[in-house]
Amino acid sequence: MNLPLTIAMPAEASAAPKTYRLLIDGKFVDARDGRTLERNSPGHGFTVSRYAQAGEEEVEAAVQAAAHKAFETGPWPRMKAGERAAILLKAADLIEARLKEIARLDALESGKPITQARGEIGGAVDIWRYAAALARTLHGETYANLGDAMLGVVLREPIGVVSIITPWNFPFLIVSQKLPFALAAGCTAVVKPSEMTSASTFVLGDILMRAGLPDGVVNILAGLGADVGAPMVSHPLVEMVSFTGSTRVGKVTMASAANALKKVSMELGGKNGQIVFPDADLEAAADAAVFGGFFNAGECCNAGSRLIVHEAIADDFLGAVKALTARVTVGDPLDDSTKVGAMISSEHLAKVTGYVAAAANDGSSVYSGGKQIASSAGQYLDPTILRGVTEDMAIAREEVFGPVLSVLTFGSIEEALRIANNTPYGLSAGVWSASIDTCMSVARNVRSGTVWVNTFMEGYPELPFGGYKQSGLGRELGKRAVEDYTEEKTIQFHRGQRTGWWVG
Ligand code: NAD
Fold first, then answer.
1. Reading across the β-sheet that carries 486-494, which strands appear in turn?
2. For residue 231, what is the enclosing H or E element?
3. CA 244 – ligand 1 centroid, Å
4. Residue 1 pLDDT > 60, yes or no?
5. Cβ atoms 475, 485 nearer than 8 A
6. Catalytic site residue 487?
């Protein structure tokens, strides 16, 4: 049969799946009950990985016997920051040396294009180096202005054991937005990657052990959210939960953490809009619209899933967007020329096509794509553009998490802002205009954690990232990223005899 998409089978398809064991207290071990989890390559359909599957017993071992012990009695929190930084820098070098291997694992397990995966691992290296630099600049405060008898000293101490839970869409990059900062602060950690994309996090574990991280400082558990994630959140010896994932699971996680009053950091979903004004560089804006909508097959918290276009240019501009979309190469994640790879699972693909069908039912029209592409293996979706979307439709408000661009139009800047803000999410937004007034008005009035002006979806370790509204709580990256993993301790030093006795 002649299919539109023929997927070549990589060498891994004819070998046994790679196996990964849990990292607990410096040793790679099987689950005590011997259970394993398998992962199929969504681009090719063969079993690519088999991980030891943790349960509550392994969570107990990782938190209590490893991470808590390493925090209470181990060297890590007590080392000089420079010594911790040296290990983080060594880890960065080792990640860089294994960049291609890690990128291939992420591409095979998540279906993302290999060239993009390499870019993400390169970005992660940069973040590990940035965190190493911050380790050495972390400091507290002193107050010598409290009178002669008093010196106030405010310490920044590591908060303790941190549970780190990550999603499947950027497996290596997201753990790298959390773990190096927690380590820089002197914390210890238990990490749970997504059950669909755990391989690269285990490679990170191997790298950290080789870089000289003391046993028990980082522990890695593969497993399901209910079996492993939930007890990692509720465990009484865990002081902080750093979670990236869906808003739905984020709320459950936060409620559980609230029971024990744990600190949380939440990076959740998005429904981000790019607003395009007639005076913009429309060629650049069209390219960014396609990039924003279809990068990582739209399986991206930052996806520019709503294109908010001025009505005066809508027809011509969308014609350009459609023409560019037709040139986006969809296919084998391992092919260097691929721009859009596979969808993470057939269930997720069905959910996304269900959204498209419901949007058509609600009155929008499919302007481009809309269907699964028949392929010899894996599951692929044609990049899809929906026109005639209105603010009340589910497709305009909910996170679809697929390569689906919903087009809404506006007549005035006030209307554009109302549309942009009319969602429960507030992660990011984009504005395209040659007018500084227009750009500033949008940037100041959009309720989101990041606003890109005449660009889209760039990221730098120096710049804080996170969401307003239901897109999250707290910020990652930026110069305060290490502080997030600390507690403040106030020490008051009194000199001489205390005055103003209470009883006398
Ligand atoms: P998810 O919420 O289904 O899962 C995320 C992680 O939570 C996984 O490791 C999962 O096993 C775990 N989990 C599931 N149930 C749990 C529970 N009860 N307790 C503790 N942990 C549990 O998300 P996903 O489908 O893996 O990822 C996609 C979502 O992540 C999207 O909504 C996306 O927007 C979001 N995301 C946000 C950012 C950001 O920085 N804001 C970045 C990437 C992805």
1. 141-143, 150-158, 486-494
2. helix 230-234
3. 5
4. no
5. no
6. no
Distance CA 55, CA 227 (A): 5
CA 168–ligand 1 middle distance (angstroms): 7
Domains and CATH numbers, the chain: 11-268+471-489 (3.40.605.10), 273-453 (3.40.309.10)
Q: Tell me, rounded to whole angstroms, the distance of Cα 3 from its chain centroid.
A: 34
Amino acid letter at 366?
V
What whole-number distance in Å separates Cα of residue 131 and Cα of residue 128?
5
- Please give the average per-residue pLDDT across 18-34, as a whole number: 98
| pLDDT in the model for residue 3 | 83
Q: Is there an atom of ligand 1 within 6 Å of 254 CB?
A: no
**Among 151, 199, 267, which residue's Cα sits nearest to residue 39?**
199
Residue 301 known to be catalytic: yes
Residues paired with residue 406 on neighbouring β-strands, in sequence order: 306, 386
pLDDT of residue 422: 97
Model confidence at 98, pLDDT cuts 50, 70, 90, reads very high
Q: How much distance in Å is there from the Cα of 262 to the middle of ligand 1?
A: 19
pTM of the model: 0.98
Q: What is the pLDDT of residue 35?
A: 98
* Identity of the amino acid at 116: Q
DSSP-assigned letter for residue 298:
G
For residue 346, pLDDT beyond 90: yes
| Secondary structure, 3-state, 372-392 | EECECCCCEECCEEEECCCCC
DSSP state at residue 495: -
Phi and psi, residue 174, nearest 5°: -70, -40
* Contact (CB, 8 A) for 450 and 468: no
